[in-house]
Amino acid sequence: MAYRMIQIGTGGFGASWCRSFLPPNVVGRLIEAVAAVDLNPQAHQAAIEGLGLPAEKCYTDLQRALDENPADFCTVVVPPACHESVVDAALAHDLHILSEKPIADTLGASVRIAQKVKQAGKKMGVTMSHRFDQDKTSLRHEILSGRWGPLDYLVCRFSCALRRFASWGKFRHEIPDPLMVEGAVHHLDLLVDMTGAQCDTIYAQTWNPPWGEYAGDSQGLVLMRSENGVRSTYEGAKTNARGLNCWGNEYIRAECEYATLILDTRELRAHPADGVACRNNADADGSCALPLLEQPKWANTWLIEKFVNWLEGGEPMETNVEDNLQSVALIFAAIESSRTGQPVKVQELLEETRRQVAAEG
Fold first, then answer.
1. Where does 132-290 sit in CATH, by number?
2. Whole-model pTM above 0.85?
């Protein structure tokens, strides 16, 4: 059975959904696109060309699209500040939801969304695409394999040269904390996932240099400690002179007991300790290349399939909205830490926000 879906957001990154992420799942008969929505009529072309929708099934009015097109779920690919209102409309039409990260633009709104979805008895997933990219999945597999011993700490570098206004999408240059909300939301999430435990404490410093054409902080340094004692450090930058490890090409180093594992621009290598052999032919320095895992789908395309499997009665996708609150809590704990200059207990912040939302009714 193909699940009927409505694509909400066809411009910007929504165009990638229409042209790249959704079509393999349409071809595989997992989903059927029945309508698309975007406030900009010119953006409808991506849905017409990528999803094969007729022009009359592309709307600028969300309510009308939902009223006129029975569906099983919708996707949400609009700016985070708009997520809660779109989720409200989807739930009012009895739809399941698959949303781009983050859940919302504040931790309070994210908690409210998770509660509304639970109360409605619906399913909502969040597409943390970078955690499920081929290279990061391969590194996580190596860490969890146990071959290289226990993990001690992780280092991630994300360095971009996107300092000019609108070079990272216009709205990201106009919102508070663009690096954290739109960038680190992926990277802190995948780092904590690799540690194998929830984050306990986070300390961050974020800022925007004079040459960064952003309204909020575009640069950041973060230190995290997971509940199992594994540490992670993160360098995030959107306004550097040169992009060394920008989107999809991040540098991640995993320090394990028996090897240093390095992922750099989508190449994975092991640098074993003295006396530990690589399973492949080693280079002169003793290191060896580790092959990346192979499968038909990665990132958002794979996550769409995971969401459909969940709708069919399978296990909840790893990034279901309730579990994904951990990712959002990381971001807003980091923002609070930067503003106060103090470490923040992530789980305490999340629980306090839950209490505040419950008190607000």
1. 3.30.360.10
2. yes
